[in-house]
Write a structure and sequence with these properties.
Strand content: under 5%
Number of strands: 0
Shape: elongated
Order of helices and strands: HHHHH
Oligomer: single chain
Helix content: over 70%
Radius of gyration: 21 Å
Amino acid sequence: LPWTLASIYWQVVGRTAEWEAMYPEAAATITGVGFVVESKNLGFSVLTFCVVCCLALLLLHLRRKWLGGELGGPAGPKIATTLVFIGFWVGWV
C-alpha cells in the first residue's frame, strides 16, 4: 500500500528538480516521473522474510504433528505459539 500511494503521489505531483537531483539515473532513463525504490537491502529483506516464513511453517507443522492441529489445543503451547508468532512479526517489522 505505501508503494502504491507513493506512485500515485508522484504521478500527480510530476517531475520536480528535487526528484531529478535525488534520482539522476532514473531521471536520465525515463521521460516522466516514477516512484524509485533503491534495492540496497532487498536481498537481506527477502532472505529474512523467507527464513521467518519457513520457521513459521515448521512451527505449524510441529503443532499439527504433536497437538493434532494448528489452532487451539492446551493453553501452554497455544500461548507459546502466539508469543513466537508475535516475536516473528516484531522482528520482521
